[in-house]
Design a protein that fits this description.
single chain, 473 residues, four-stranded antiparallel beta sheet
Length: 473
């Protein structure tokens, strides 16, 4: 679930961020023949400069040895594609909101779930990791996987980073939508910035068992017949007990409470996916692991004959809930990627398209009804230009995500994908070389080998200077 990577030395990371941002702006824009996709008003300051600061969204953050942000990534902060009317990510968000508003209503007739879609993407490392019980040695904490402003602040890696604060504020049913940031591979399905939608719901004992015993679901009546036999109206059922943890429950939860929460979670998600994809959807649940839920599941749907992972979910860890001050409640949480849903629903083939300003793309989603079916009509597929790059790795402190970040910083959205096509270990020196194939493709026009060559040359030179590799070009 999380990419394992070796830790980079702080000095190398700082050098990379500072140098890459300066080396590469010229070649990318020169080669593309275009201005940047968006201005960068959100950021100022010399990235990576020890003792320096960066201003982001109106606040200043001192930089240190943890700072590993490139200007390419920071240029995405504040774009908030999920709040841009008629953008495909906005359409997905609005459809989910509409469904929850219609299906879940409180006693006063107002929506049960509140929605937060403008929370700052800058969070503390405590919010992003510790509040969610992420272990200190978990690989997602490494600089090779996450984007840090400094040792205490970062760009959120998931919208779950806001769970604890909202629970602490007394909320028991909410949706959080926002941009999230992870260092990752480069291909048509991955981008260092994407968008998530998070949902949390808590139940008191009265709410959970009132819901359970009043449900008209035949499946739940079957569940009741096996778990609650001999118990009248749930009168002696409890949320909590002190027992042992198993694959089916936490040590503080009763099995009956866990099964009711799990049932409500799966029923909620099944209704949501049926709303988005239509009736007759084939769904399956796969057991998995998350630090902040147990039991945990991944939801997969069969779409056009292929099983697709759509989201992760589970019963919330009671330690998390308790620490936020909701000790008398039990709940569930789920998180889904908006890009993944949109790519499936609208047949969008490349994740870079979500950042496009091309009207031929955007106008396809200007619909009168947000539930209107939309099938993306591909833009002209301009030819790819493919170049290889190979080099000897330094003897230590190399991670692939460093190289991917460098390529993204220099090539930007001209880079369609990067594949590791060959590894070689010298039999005498035991040094290792990697050969990568970089596919360049402009989304709006044909590029020449000459202009791509300028970008590729910049990648080669920066890799030698900033990553410490030795060329085999």
């Amino acid at each position: 679930m999380v990419c394992w990577a070796l830790r980079r030395a702080a000095q190398v990371r700082v050098h990379l961020a500072r140098k890459a941002s300066g080396v590469c702006r010229g070649p990318e824009y020169q080669a593309s023949g275009a201005r940047p996709a968006a201005p960068e008003p959100a950021t100022r300051g010399a990235l990576g400069a020890l003792g320096g600061t960066v201003e982001l969204l109106g606040k200043s953050y001192p930089q240190d040895g943890y700072s590993n942000l490139s200007r390419k990534v920071l240029s995405r902060v504040g774009r908030n594609l999920h709040n841009r009317p008629h953008h495909p990510l906005w359409l997905i968000k609005e459809r989910v909101k509409q469904h929850f508003y219609a299906q879940y209503v409180g006693r006063s007739g107002t929506p049960l779930f509140s929605v937060y879609d403008d929370l700052s993407p800058v969070v503390t490392t405590w919010q992003n990791f510790d509040s969610l019980l992420v272990p200190a040695d978990h690989p997602s904490r490494k600089k090779g996987d996450s984007y840090y402003l400094n040792a205490t602040h970062m760009l959120r890696a998931h919208t779950s980073a806001h769970q604890w604060d909202l629970l602490r504020a007394g909320l028991d049913a909410f949706l959080v939508v926002g941009d999230v940031y992870r260092r990752d591979q480069i291909d048509a399905q991955h981008h260092p910035v994407f968008h998530q939608l998070e949902a949390v719901r808590l139940f008191s004992r009265h709410q959970l068992f009132q819901w359970g015993w009043n449900s008209s679901s035949g499946s739940l009546r079957f569940l009741q017949g096996h778990l609650f036999a001999g118990v009248k109206d749930g009168e002696n059922l409890q949320l909590f007990e002190q027992s042992s943890r198993s694959a089916h429950k936490q040590e503080t939860h009763t099995l009956e409470a866990t099964k009711l929460v799990e049932f409500d979670l799966k029923q909620t998600l099944t209704r949501l996916m049926t709303h988005l994809f239509g009736d007759g959807l084939d769904i399956r649940w796969v057991d998995c692991y998350f630090p902040f839920t147990h039991p945990s599941f991944e939801m997969e749907i069969n779409f056009h004959g292929e099983w697709l992972e759509i989201l992760g979910c589970g019963v919330m860890e009671q330690r998390l809930v308790n620490s936020a001050g909701a000790e008398d409640q039990i709940g569930w949480a789920f998180g889904l990627g908006l890009e993944r849903l949109a790519m499936v629903l609208y047949d969008i083939p490349d994740i870079r398209l979500f950042w496009s300003e091309d009207e031929r793309f955007l106008k396809q989603f200007c619909v009168q009804d947000i539930n209107q079916k939309v099938k993306f009509q591909p833009l002209s597929k301009y030819p790819a230009v493919i170049n290889d790059i190979s080099f000897w790795l330094p003897r230590e402190n190399y991670t692939e995500n460093d190289f991917y970040d460098l390529v993204r910083t220099i090539g930007g959205d001209l880079v369609e994908k990067v594949d590791l096509i060959d590894k070689f270990e010298h039999p005498k020196t035991h040094r290792t070389s990697h050969c990568y194939r970089i596919t360049y493709r402009h989304m709006e026009r044909t590029m020449s080998q000459r202009e791509v060559g300028r970008v590729h040359q910049a990648v080669q030179e920066a890799a030698v200077r900033l990553l410490g590799v030795e060329g085999r070009f």
